[in-house]
Specification:
Elements lengths: L1 H42 L2 H4 L2 E8 L4 E6 L11 H12 L7 E6 L2 E3 L2 E3 L2 E4 L8 H13 L4 E2 L3 E4 L34 E7 L9 E5 L5 E5 L2 E3 L6 E9 L2 E11 L5 E6 L3 H16 L2 E2 L3 E3 L7 E7 L3 H10 L3 H16 L5 H14 L23 H12 L2 H9 L2 E2 L19 E8 L2 E9 L5 E9 L5 H16 L4
Parallel strand pairs: 5-7, 6-8, 7-16, 8-17, 11-14, 12-14
Antiparallel strand pairs: 1-2, 1-22, 3-6, 3-18, 4-5, 9-10, 9-15, 13-14, 19-20, 20-21, 21-22
Helix pairs in contact: 1-11, 3-6, 3-7, 3-8, 3-10, 4-5, 7-8
């Protein structure tokens, strides 16, 4: 009898426990519906109603979908394309990968004179800047070299084919975001033009180039206007057979602070070699010959090699500041390293397709035309982006580097000034994206309750300004941060 009573008691306790769990399970369902309704309401505002909006939100903590609005429809992702490039680069090249830029000679050092040519061989390093080139020159000096009898030769055969992505709508743009790719590149294949007014009305403005180089022919027609007047400065870049011409025009008000303009360059290899030759001369190493393109001879002697910072650090710069040049250099490098040199856009895209298939994103269910997202031909779905985010979060060997590459909301990168001093600050890591009529935001959210979400918001053809569209994305993100159950 006692045994029957005990069994009955356990049965009743089990029923009570089951009942209480069922009751506890109801509110989360209500909250999920509330989140979907809130995001749908935002997506139906006048700004977005006439366009196309896709949203997907999943809980990584519970492996369930919370929001799906047009999640399987295709959108132009703009710079959210860089998420795919980043993922494949980390998986195939690995976070510790470095770009090597060696210096060779086909001559011998006689005393302090190098009797031969100096060869600079490029491997697509997207992060090589003037300071690092200067250190290479210093290393040559430390080897006892004080003069070079031959030429400065650049070997850029590691890349081939088109210098810009397929479908880029404004390939002739001189803006730095539209820089050419090149196996031998320097300063993101761009030059900084600093303009500041003279002291009084009528004086010419002062123009400074960084780096200062004979590769650029400078023409300045800009003058200083009265203090308090309207400043209107234009900086154009025009290609020349052996360099570029920078033309500064307009007027700049006296007393106004300096402005810096960044312009891409037409001949990456020639630009890099010219600056190298000038650095050699400035350091005290006389160069008898000129600069030209050529191949490193098989019998050449390696003098030194510059290694870039690790790929993971380069990808961090790429994503936080949405650098198109880095993305395309990395894409071509994937092609060269995995398919064999020379690297090209197509080889890189083939590597992306193969790797994404391994991650569960089937070929021919999307279109990628470049590595940066500058091409309007790119088409992906919010669901595919979220799937990628899930896959990268669940891969221990690359998870930390992938997450670290994303902008921290309200803290750094392209989202430094978004959602500052709100619950979303520091709780959201994202990649932004924008083109004409396109705005994208995808990444990870930690809710106030500590639940981890992955999301993608893609907006195309909206009927308002870009900043208004971004504000609506931020409203959606705040809804995710506050999601509780």
């Amino acid at each position: 009898m006692r045994r029957i009573g005990l069994s009955l008691l356990l049965f009743l306790l089990g029923c009570l426990l089951f009942s209480s769990q069922g009751l506890a399970g109801s509110p989360p369902k209500k909250e999920e519906n509330r989140l979907q309704a809130a995001i749908r309401r935002i997506s139906n505002t006048p700004c977005l109603r006439q366009g196309k909006v896709g949203v997907k939100v999943v809980s990584l903590s519970r492996q369930e979908t919370l929001v799906a609005i047009n999640a399987d429809q295709h959108f132009i992702p703009a710079s959210n394309t860089k998420l795919f490039t980043t993922a494949v680069a980390l998986l195939r090249l690995h976070p510790e990968y470095t770009f090597a830029t060696p210096l060779f000679t086909d001559g011998k050092l006689v005393g302090d004179r190098l009797e031969g040519n100096l060869y600079l061989q490029g491997s697509g390093d997207p992060s090589l800047v003037s300071e690092e080139l200067w250190i290479m020159v210093e290393q040559l000096w430390n080897q006892g070299i004080r003069a070079i009898k031959g030429d400065i030769v650049g070997d850029d055969r590691f890349f081939t084919g088109a210098e810009r992505g397929r479908g880029w709508t404004n390939p002739r743009s001189v803006r730095a975001y539209n820089a050419k790719t090149g196996a031998l590149s320097l300063n993101f294949n761009a030059i900084a033009v600093r303009v500041e007014p003279g002291r009084r009305k009528g004086e010419k403005v002062r123009v400074t180039l960084s780096p200062p180089t004979a590769y650029i022919t400078l023409t300045s027609r800009a003058t200083t206007s009265p203090a308090g007047s309207r400043t209107a400065i234009t900086v154009d870049r025009r290609p020349l057979p052996q360099g570029d011409r920078i033309v500064v025009a307009g007027r700049m008000a006296a007393g106004e602070g300096p402005q810096t303009f960044y312009r891409n360059i037409s001949h990456p290899t020639l630009f890099t070699l010219t600056v190298l030759r000038e650095f050699l001369e400035r350091y005290g190493i006389a160069v008898q010959g000129g600069v030209r393109e050529g191949e490193v001879p098989p019998e050449a002697t390696r003098l030194l090699t510059h290694h870039s910072k690790p790929l993971a650090r380069i990808l961090l710069d790429m994503n936080k500041f949405s650098n198109n040049f880095i993305a395309e250099q990395v894409l071509k490098t994937l092609g060269a390293e995995i398919k064999g040199p020379p690297g090209s856009f197509q080889k890189g895209l083939d590597v992306l397709e193969e790797t994404l298939a391994e991650l569960g994103i089937a070929p021919r269910t999307y279109t990628l035309a470049d590595g940066s997202g500058l091409s309007p031909l790119n088409r992906v779905t919010p669901a595919q982006i979220v799937h990628l985010l899930e896959q990268m979060y669940n891969r221990f060997t690359v998870q930390a580097e992938f997450l670290a590459s994303l902008g921290i909301m309200g803290v750094d990168g392209s989202v430094k000034e978004r959602l500052e001093q709100t619950p979303a600050q520091r709780r959201v890591r994202v990649k932004t994206g924008s083109l004409a009529g396109v705005s994208a935001l995808s990444g990870y959210v930690e809710t106030l309750q500590g639940e981890l979400l992955a999301f993608s918001i893609l907006m195309n053809r909206f009927a308002c300004g870009l900043f208004q569209a971004m504000d609506l994305q931020d409203e959606m993100v705040l809804q995710m941060v506050r999601f509780a159950r």
